[in-house]
Design brief:
The protein has 349 residues and is an alpha/beta fold. The chain has a ten-stranded mixed beta sheet with strand order 1-2-3-4-7-8-9-10-11-12. A two-stranded antiparallel ribbon has the order 5-6. Strand 7, helix 6 and strand 8 form a beta-alpha-beta unit. Iron/sulfur cluster binds next to loops.
Protein backbone atom coordinates (compact mmCIF):
# COMPACT_ATOMS: atom_id res chain seq x y z
CA UNK A 1 0.00 0.00 0.00
CA UNK A 2 1.23 3.48 -0.81
CA UNK A 3 2.01 5.83 2.06
CA UNK A 4 1.72 9.61 1.99
CA UNK A 5 5.49 9.78 1.42
CA UNK A 6 5.01 7.94 -1.89
CA UNK A 7 2.61 10.47 -3.36
CA UNK A 8 3.18 13.56 -5.44
CA UNK A 9 0.73 16.46 -4.98
CA UNK A 10 -0.90 15.45 -8.28
CA UNK A 11 -1.35 11.82 -7.20
CA UNK A 12 -2.78 12.86 -3.83
CA UNK A 13 -5.12 15.39 -5.47
CA UNK A 14 -6.39 12.61 -7.78
CA UNK A 15 -6.97 10.38 -4.74
CA UNK A 16 -8.89 13.13 -2.95
CA UNK A 17 -11.03 13.73 -6.05
CA UNK A 18 -11.84 10.00 -6.14
CA UNK A 19 -12.92 10.22 -2.51
CA UNK A 20 -15.09 13.24 -3.28
CA UNK A 21 -12.85 15.55 -1.25
CA UNK A 22 -11.45 18.88 -2.49
CA UNK A 23 -8.24 18.15 -4.46
CA UNK A 24 -6.93 21.55 -3.34
CA UNK A 25 -6.27 20.07 0.13
CA UNK A 26 -3.56 17.81 -1.33
CA UNK A 27 -0.79 20.37 -1.79
CA UNK A 28 -1.57 21.96 1.60
CA UNK A 29 -1.49 18.63 3.41
CA UNK A 30 1.81 17.58 1.83
CA UNK A 31 3.50 20.91 2.54
CA UNK A 32 2.37 20.75 6.17
CA UNK A 33 3.51 17.11 6.45
CA UNK A 34 6.97 17.80 4.95
CA UNK A 35 7.46 20.93 7.07
CA UNK A 36 6.79 19.04 10.27
CA UNK A 37 9.20 16.21 9.44
CA UNK A 38 6.53 13.67 8.54
CA UNK A 39 3.73 14.30 11.04
CA UNK A 40 0.32 15.99 10.77
CA UNK A 41 -1.33 18.31 13.28
CA UNK A 42 -4.97 17.85 12.25
CA UNK A 43 -6.14 20.78 14.40
CA UNK A 44 -3.82 23.09 12.54
CA UNK A 45 -4.41 21.57 9.12
CA UNK A 46 -8.24 21.62 9.19
CA UNK A 47 -9.17 19.48 6.19
CA UNK A 48 -12.57 18.39 7.53
CA UNK A 49 -13.43 15.47 9.74
CA UNK A 50 -14.55 13.11 6.96
CA UNK A 51 -11.35 13.51 4.94
CA UNK A 52 -9.17 13.29 8.05
CA UNK A 53 -10.81 10.00 9.05
CA UNK A 54 -10.51 8.57 5.56
CA UNK A 55 -6.80 9.46 5.41
CA UNK A 56 -6.18 7.90 8.82
CA UNK A 57 -8.04 4.77 7.75
CA UNK A 58 -6.65 4.29 4.25
CA UNK A 59 -3.43 6.21 3.80
CA UNK A 60 -0.50 5.47 6.13
CA UNK A 61 1.65 8.56 6.61
CA UNK A 62 4.88 6.58 6.35
CA UNK A 63 6.01 3.17 5.22
CA UNK A 64 9.25 3.00 7.20
CA UNK A 65 9.74 2.69 10.93
CA UNK A 66 12.74 3.21 13.18
CA UNK A 67 14.06 -0.14 14.34
CA UNK A 68 17.16 1.26 16.07
CA UNK A 69 18.63 4.63 16.94
CA UNK A 70 22.18 5.31 18.06
CA UNK A 71 23.61 8.59 19.24
CA UNK A 72 27.32 9.28 19.09
CA UNK A 73 29.22 11.16 21.76
CA UNK A 74 29.73 13.91 19.14
CA UNK A 75 25.94 14.31 18.65
CA UNK A 76 25.65 12.32 15.40
CA UNK A 77 22.44 10.27 15.32
CA UNK A 78 22.13 7.16 13.19
CA UNK A 79 18.77 5.51 12.44
CA UNK A 80 18.18 2.02 11.17
CA UNK A 81 14.91 2.20 9.24
CA UNK A 82 12.85 -0.92 8.54
CA UNK A 83 11.12 -0.57 5.18
CA UNK A 84 7.58 -1.88 4.75
CA UNK A 85 8.56 -3.15 1.30
CA UNK A 86 11.38 -5.20 2.80
CA UNK A 87 14.92 -4.65 3.98
CA UNK A 88 16.35 -1.87 6.06
CA UNK A 89 18.67 1.03 5.56
CA UNK A 90 20.64 3.54 7.58
CA UNK A 91 20.38 7.30 7.60
CA UNK A 92 22.41 9.79 9.62
CA UNK A 93 21.99 13.26 11.14
CA UNK A 94 25.22 15.11 11.81
CA UNK A 95 26.09 18.20 13.77
CA UNK A 96 27.55 21.20 11.95
CA UNK A 97 29.78 24.06 13.11
CA UNK A 98 26.52 26.03 13.55
CA UNK A 99 24.53 25.03 16.64
CA UNK A 100 21.21 25.83 14.98
CA UNK A 101 21.83 23.67 11.90
CA UNK A 102 22.17 19.94 11.21
CA UNK A 103 23.30 18.01 8.14
CA UNK A 104 21.71 14.83 6.86
CA UNK A 105 23.04 11.83 4.97
CA UNK A 106 20.64 9.47 3.19
CA UNK A 107 20.92 6.13 1.42
CA UNK A 108 19.76 5.50 -2.15
CA UNK A 109 19.84 1.70 -2.12
CA UNK A 110 19.69 -1.19 0.32
CA UNK A 111 23.24 -2.50 0.08
CA UNK A 112 25.41 -1.61 -2.89
CA UNK A 113 26.69 -3.48 -5.93
CA UNK A 114 29.80 -1.37 -6.43
CA UNK A 115 32.16 -3.36 -4.23
CA UNK A 116 34.44 -0.53 -3.03
CA UNK A 117 36.84 -2.53 -0.94
CA UNK A 118 36.98 -0.29 2.12
CA UNK A 119 33.20 0.22 2.40
CA UNK A 120 30.88 -1.73 4.71
CA UNK A 121 27.75 -0.94 2.67
CA UNK A 122 28.69 -3.32 -0.12
CA UNK A 123 29.67 -6.37 1.93
CA UNK A 124 26.34 -8.11 1.30
CA UNK A 125 25.92 -6.85 -2.25
CA UNK A 126 22.87 -5.00 -3.53
CA UNK A 127 19.48 -5.98 -2.15
CA UNK A 128 17.35 -3.43 -3.99
CA UNK A 129 16.87 0.18 -5.02
CA UNK A 130 15.01 2.44 -2.63
CA UNK A 131 11.91 4.08 -4.02
CA UNK A 132 11.60 7.86 -4.10
CA UNK A 133 9.18 7.81 -1.15
CA UNK A 134 11.60 5.70 0.90
CA UNK A 135 14.34 8.27 0.33
CA UNK A 136 11.93 11.06 1.23
CA UNK A 137 11.12 9.20 4.47
CA UNK A 138 14.77 9.27 5.50
CA UNK A 139 14.80 13.02 4.95
CA UNK A 140 11.65 13.41 7.04
CA UNK A 141 13.03 11.35 9.93
CA UNK A 142 16.17 13.49 9.87
CA UNK A 143 14.18 16.71 9.72
CA UNK A 144 12.03 15.56 12.66
CA UNK A 145 15.13 14.70 14.69
CA UNK A 146 16.64 18.12 13.92
CA UNK A 147 13.39 19.90 14.85
CA UNK A 148 13.19 17.97 18.12
CA UNK A 149 16.56 19.43 19.08
CA UNK A 150 15.72 22.98 17.90
CA UNK A 151 17.83 22.74 14.80
CA UNK A 152 17.18 23.15 11.10
CA UNK A 153 18.16 20.39 8.70
CA UNK A 154 20.12 22.61 6.35
CA UNK A 155 21.89 20.25 3.93
CA UNK A 156 21.43 16.73 2.64
CA UNK A 157 24.01 14.46 1.04
CA UNK A 158 23.43 11.22 -0.82
CA UNK A 159 26.44 9.52 0.73
CA UNK A 160 24.80 6.70 2.65
CA UNK A 161 24.35 3.20 1.33
CA UNK A 162 24.26 2.76 -2.42
CA UNK A 163 25.37 4.35 -5.67
CA UNK A 164 22.76 7.05 -6.43
CA UNK A 165 23.27 6.86 -10.20
CA UNK A 166 22.29 3.18 -10.17
CA UNK A 167 18.91 4.36 -8.92
CA UNK A 168 18.81 7.54 -10.96
CA UNK A 169 15.08 8.09 -11.45
CA UNK A 170 14.09 7.49 -7.84
CA UNK A 171 16.93 9.66 -6.57
CA UNK A 172 15.99 12.54 -8.88
CA UNK A 173 12.31 12.24 -7.99
CA UNK A 174 13.16 12.24 -4.27
CA UNK A 175 15.37 15.32 -4.72
CA UNK A 176 12.60 17.14 -6.56
CA UNK A 177 10.26 16.56 -3.61
CA UNK A 178 12.83 17.29 -0.90
CA UNK A 179 14.29 20.43 -2.45
CA UNK A 180 11.31 22.10 -4.09
CA UNK A 181 9.63 24.98 -2.26
CA UNK A 182 6.22 23.33 -2.77
CA UNK A 183 7.12 20.30 -0.64
CA UNK A 184 10.31 19.79 1.36
CA UNK A 185 11.61 23.30 0.76
CA UNK A 186 15.19 22.35 1.55
CA UNK A 187 16.55 24.20 -1.49
CA UNK A 188 18.40 22.77 -4.50
CA UNK A 189 21.85 24.02 -3.54
CA UNK A 190 21.56 22.30 -0.20
CA UNK A 191 21.56 18.85 -1.86
CA UNK A 192 24.69 16.92 -2.86
CA UNK A 193 24.76 13.65 -4.78
CA UNK A 194 27.87 11.56 -4.39
CA UNK A 195 28.95 9.05 -7.03
CA UNK A 196 31.77 6.59 -7.35
CA UNK A 197 32.09 7.78 -10.96
CA UNK A 198 29.19 6.47 -13.05
CA UNK A 199 29.88 8.53 -16.16
CA UNK A 200 26.42 8.38 -17.82
CA UNK A 201 24.84 9.36 -14.48
CA UNK A 202 27.11 12.39 -14.06
CA UNK A 203 26.30 13.56 -17.57
CA UNK A 204 22.56 12.92 -17.17
CA UNK A 205 22.47 14.87 -13.91
CA UNK A 206 24.36 17.73 -15.55
CA UNK A 207 21.78 17.81 -18.35
CA UNK A 208 18.92 18.03 -15.85
CA UNK A 209 20.49 21.23 -14.48
CA UNK A 210 18.81 20.94 -11.08
CA UNK A 211 21.28 23.31 -9.43
CA UNK A 212 22.36 20.64 -6.96
CA UNK A 213 25.92 19.67 -6.08
CA UNK A 214 28.03 16.74 -7.20
CA UNK A 215 30.62 14.90 -5.13
CA UNK A 216 32.97 12.46 -6.79
CA UNK A 217 34.37 9.60 -4.73
CA UNK A 218 37.70 9.45 -6.49
CA UNK A 219 39.96 7.86 -3.84
CA UNK A 220 42.95 7.54 -6.20
CA UNK A 221 44.35 9.63 -9.03
CA UNK A 222 45.44 6.78 -11.30
CA UNK A 223 43.73 3.71 -12.75
CA UNK A 224 46.27 1.26 -11.36
CA UNK A 225 45.70 2.28 -7.74
CA UNK A 226 41.99 2.99 -8.10
CA UNK A 227 41.15 -0.36 -9.70
CA UNK A 228 42.42 -2.17 -6.59
CA UNK A 229 39.97 -0.38 -4.28
CA UNK A 230 37.11 0.74 -6.55
CA UNK A 231 36.09 -2.07 -8.95
CA UNK A 232 33.84 0.33 -10.91
CA UNK A 233 37.05 1.88 -12.22
CA UNK A 234 37.38 -1.02 -14.68
CA UNK A 235 34.20 0.19 -16.37
CA UNK A 236 34.86 3.93 -16.08
CA UNK A 237 38.54 4.90 -15.97
CA UNK A 238 39.73 8.02 -14.18
CA UNK A 239 40.16 10.16 -17.32
CA UNK A 240 36.57 9.52 -18.45
CA UNK A 241 35.21 10.29 -14.99
CA UNK A 242 37.10 13.57 -14.79
CA UNK A 243 35.86 14.52 -18.29
CA UNK A 244 32.28 13.90 -17.17
CA UNK A 245 32.86 15.89 -13.99
CA UNK A 246 34.21 18.82 -16.01
CA UNK A 247 31.12 18.57 -18.19
CA UNK A 248 29.00 18.83 -15.03
CA UNK A 249 30.83 22.00 -14.06
CA UNK A 250 30.50 23.51 -17.55
CA UNK A 251 26.76 22.79 -17.64
CA UNK A 252 25.87 23.80 -14.09
CA UNK A 253 28.63 26.10 -12.82
CA UNK A 254 28.60 24.04 -9.59
CA UNK A 255 31.98 23.14 -8.12
CA UNK A 256 32.49 19.41 -7.62
CA UNK A 257 33.74 18.03 -4.32
CA UNK A 258 36.42 15.42 -4.78
CA UNK A 259 36.20 12.81 -2.01
CA UNK A 260 39.39 10.94 -1.24
CA UNK A 261 39.38 8.21 1.41
CA UNK A 262 42.95 7.95 2.68
CA UNK A 263 44.19 4.40 3.17
CA UNK A 264 47.62 3.79 4.68
CA UNK A 265 50.11 2.43 2.15
CA UNK A 266 47.51 2.32 -0.63
CA UNK A 267 46.76 5.83 -1.92
CA UNK A 268 48.41 8.17 0.59
CA UNK A 269 51.94 8.69 -0.75
CA UNK A 270 53.41 12.03 -1.81
CA UNK A 271 53.46 10.63 -5.33
CA UNK A 272 49.70 10.05 -5.18
CA UNK A 273 49.22 13.62 -3.95
CA UNK A 274 51.26 14.97 -6.86
CA UNK A 275 49.34 12.80 -9.34
CA UNK A 276 46.07 14.06 -7.88
CA UNK A 277 47.17 17.66 -8.27
CA UNK A 278 48.24 16.98 -11.85
CA UNK A 279 44.97 15.21 -12.67
CA UNK A 280 42.88 18.11 -11.41
CA UNK A 281 45.12 20.92 -12.67
CA UNK A 282 43.07 23.84 -14.00
CA UNK A 283 39.81 22.40 -12.66
CA UNK A 284 37.91 24.24 -9.87
CA UNK A 285 37.19 21.66 -7.18
CA UNK A 286 37.18 21.22 -3.43
CA UNK A 287 39.20 18.25 -2.22
CA UNK A 288 37.89 16.47 0.86
CA UNK A 289 40.42 14.10 2.35
CA UNK A 290 38.69 11.47 4.50
CA UNK A 291 40.96 9.58 6.88
CA UNK A 292 39.77 5.96 6.67
CA UNK A 293 37.09 4.87 9.15
CA UNK A 294 37.55 1.28 10.23
CA UNK A 295 35.09 -1.17 8.62
CA UNK A 296 36.81 -4.54 9.08
CA UNK A 297 38.18 -6.72 6.26
CA UNK A 298 37.31 -5.54 2.75
CA UNK A 299 35.53 -7.60 0.09
CA UNK A 300 39.00 -8.72 -1.02
CA UNK A 301 39.88 -9.77 2.52
CA UNK A 302 42.40 -6.94 2.76
CA UNK A 303 42.55 -4.97 6.02
CA UNK A 304 42.94 -1.21 5.78
CA UNK A 305 44.24 1.30 8.28
CA UNK A 306 44.19 5.06 8.65
CA UNK A 307 47.46 6.78 7.65
CA UNK A 308 49.61 8.35 10.35
CA UNK A 309 48.93 12.05 10.96
CA UNK A 310 52.24 13.14 9.42
CA UNK A 311 51.38 11.23 6.20
CA UNK A 312 47.97 12.91 6.09
CA UNK A 313 49.59 16.30 6.66
CA UNK A 314 52.17 15.77 3.94
CA UNK A 315 49.48 14.80 1.41
CA UNK A 316 47.38 17.85 2.29
CA UNK A 317 50.38 20.14 2.02
CA UNK A 318 51.18 18.96 -1.50
CA UNK A 319 47.68 19.43 -2.90
CA UNK A 320 47.35 22.81 -1.21
CA UNK A 321 50.73 23.91 -2.55
CA UNK A 322 49.42 23.05 -6.02
CA UNK A 323 46.69 25.66 -5.47
CA UNK A 324 43.71 23.51 -4.49
CA UNK A 325 41.23 24.11 -1.71
CA UNK A 326 41.61 20.96 0.36
CA UNK A 327 40.53 19.90 3.85
CA UNK A 328 40.28 16.88 6.04
CA UNK A 329 36.68 15.91 6.51
CA UNK A 330 35.89 15.96 10.22
CA UNK A 331 34.98 12.41 11.17
CA UNK A 332 31.56 12.26 12.79
CA UNK A 333 29.79 9.36 14.39
CA UNK A 334 32.58 6.81 14.04
CA UNK A 335 31.91 5.52 17.57
CA UNK A 336 28.47 4.35 16.37
CA UNK A 337 29.65 3.29 12.89
CA UNK A 338 27.89 6.23 11.28
CA UNK A 339 30.93 7.71 9.57
CA UNK A 340 31.72 7.54 5.85
CA UNK A 341 31.86 3.98 4.52
CA UNK A 342 30.54 2.47 7.72
CA UNK A 343 26.82 2.28 6.94
CA UNK A 344 25.27 -1.12 6.53
CA UNK A 345 21.91 -2.86 6.75
CA UNK A 346 22.13 -4.04 10.31
CA UNK A 347 22.75 -1.66 13.13
CA UNK A 348 26.14 -1.98 14.74
CA UNK A 349 26.88 0.45 17.55
S1 LIG B 1 31.58 3.71 -1.29
FE1 LIG B 1 29.52 4.14 -2.07
S2 LIG B 1 29.57 3.22 -4.16
FE2 LIG B 1 31.31 2.33 -3.05
S3 LIG B 1 30.49 0.42 -2.18
FE3 LIG B 1 30.23 2.02 -0.61
S4 LIG B 1 28.16 2.78 -0.90
FE4 LIG B 1 28.72 1.66 -2.77
Amino acid sequence: MNALTDLTPQALAAQFAEWGAPPSHAARLLRHFYNRGGTVDWDELLVGKALQERILRELPLRSASVSARHESTDGTVKFLLAMARGGSTETVLMTTPYAERAAGCVSSQIGCAMGCDFCASTRRGLERNLEAGEIVEQFLYLRAEALATNRRLSTLVFMGMGEPFHNFENVVEAIRRIASPDLGGLGWRQVTVSTVGIVPGIRALADLDLNINLALSLHAPDDATRATIVPANRRFPVAEIIDATKYFYEKTGRITNIEYCMLAGINDSDEHARMLAELLRGFRTHINLIPYNFTGAGVSGRMYTRPQQERLDSFLKIVRAAGFIAHFRVTRGDDVNAACGQLRETMQA
